Amino acid sequence: MSLGRWRVEDRVRIQNPLSSLNDEQVNIDATRFVNSKARFLSDRVEEVQRAAHVAKHIRFYEQIARGYNPGGASPPVILTDDEKRALVREKEKIISEHGMWYVFVTVALAAFLQGFVQSSFAGANVYEGYWRRITDDNKRDHEMGITNGIAYLAAALIGCPLSDPINQIAGRRGAIFFASILIMTTSIAAASLSNFDEDGTAQSTAWKTLVGLRLINGIGMGIKAVSTPILASETAIGYWRGSALLVWQLWVALGIFVSNSFNLLFYLSPRPIVSLRLILASPMVPAIFLAISLIFTPESPRFYLRPQRGHYNPEKAYRELKRLRNTELQALRDLYLVHRSVEFSDFDDRLDERVDTPEITLRPKLSVRIRQYFSRYRDLIANPRLRNSTISSCTVAFGQQLCGINIFAFYATTLFLKVLGGIKYDGNEDDNREAWKRAMLYSFGFGLTNFLFGIPAIGTIDTFGRRRWLLVTIPGMAFALLAAALSLENPDPNTRTTLVVIFMLIHTVFYSPAMGPVPFTLASEAFPLSHREHGCSVAITTNLFFAGLLAWFYPLLDSALGGHRNSSGNPRGGGGALGLFAGFNVLAFVLVYLLVEETKQRDLEDLDQIYAVSKRKFAKFQATVHLPWFFRRVFTCSTDPKPDFYDDTTNTVIAPDVGARGDISPPGSPIPGAGSEDKGPIATVTDTRPGSGGRYA
User: Where is average pLDDT lowest: 172-186, 229-243, 683-697?
Assistant: First the structure.
């Protein structure tokens, strides 16, 4: 199978990106990098060569750092004590680098804001009688749907596509800052609306204005949802990238929980209209904190290492890496590895070579940029490697909507009001306050459960694995939704309420460590640097687009499949919609099993080899090799070893050629001449260009 300039065989071998170079070639390549791209390091060539050799033999030097010597001889690179501690810590601690804490706080606040906004929308639904019209025949349920769904549709169709040009102009930090300003201003504007129904008689038309404000809010959500996971994935140590990205889901859950807590607090206001305004305004607080945190956060080094761009600057990338890594060795190692992967990218951005030349006028330059923008989206389908990434990330993004979690996230309070028997829109607020309170308490429990059970995924998403977490938890979500659907048909209100709450929480327990964090993790890591914003935006667009459709049409779907209003106008919930989503979980399981690869514990630049094999071949292996093995193991207690789809050599400790090269001591000692060629295993996936070194990014 052909993949651009790549040759892909039946079996994919995963190996170190520098394994095709011998030690002398590493010296030459590192020197060439300094002379051609990093002249600011011209007086530190030896240090760059040290870092390059450590990158080539990373497993060997990890063993040296732990006090073992696999080869028995003196290692060519003599590590300092600080360097040894740093190499060990980056494999043992999820956040081992001091500079990563700034990124951690920013990602956490961005995710917290996402959850806070989402829960603020749901909290406002409790007071729907103050901002929309409600009728007994459900003919105006679309008002509720479009008001809740427009933000997610705007995020998917406008915000996510806009994230690429904004990232190109302002970087990851600038894009997130712009998004926080949009969310802050629209939250203040929504709380200040003058056309709410002050008496709560369900005759207001304020929903139309809310739709417009939430559309702008959604654009900010989309830009932030793409830019933040990319910032996290591009700055994290590759081994723990999944756990670093788990911050997103964990703090989205915390944002939902805290926002529900504030909704309960605002409920204490004697005037419901004041409670509604406070709920709508509350997201401005985390938005302000997010904007402030960005002042102290490092920019992604990879943002400065994209060739032929106006912001290409290896020196700035190195400065950011020094903030993000504990030692100079780590910073130089990562700078060299990212440069090497980008340099030999199959996507050489030929249009970029023209666009920044001074001879081109503004109009041609703009037209080139526009063509380039759309050509990258075309690449996501036309190029096999990118197509594989797109299928994997979009499958999981779509699966998150199939699992049904957003029924509870968007309509938890509304659903519980149905379970409790509904409320009356006759202007008598006292009759409704107890129902409002109980519905908010149940939503509070949902948010708390979502947060607490996301914690077990910390670390395990990188050891147990993304794919395995999904396959273990999706069946549990299907069972919980089916049980909740059946419980909604129970005629006894107390039993019905208890059972629905229990099974909703069980569903959330299964969701939080797997289907919660994995979609955003895959979206931000699956694509090469040249197409990362485009690929990530497509995956997150898929997620948010179907979230928007769910928010829009769920009220109508619920009415069509069992939900209805009784003769008094009170809503009652049928279980048909929940049962439908229980079936959707089965579909999600099949899609994940056949189409989603495992990416745990891989550097971003190494994922090219994971996605270099066709989906047809991967799915065939799962269906015809892995699945029969699994059934034999479960039903016949077979002891056959698990079949491996990949031949992984990255964890093999290969010692450098010590005798011919001599020592590479800490900075200050010259590097001797060439050693013998490192006869590592021949890559099954190789770059056929002369001198390319087998890399693709």
Answer: 683-697
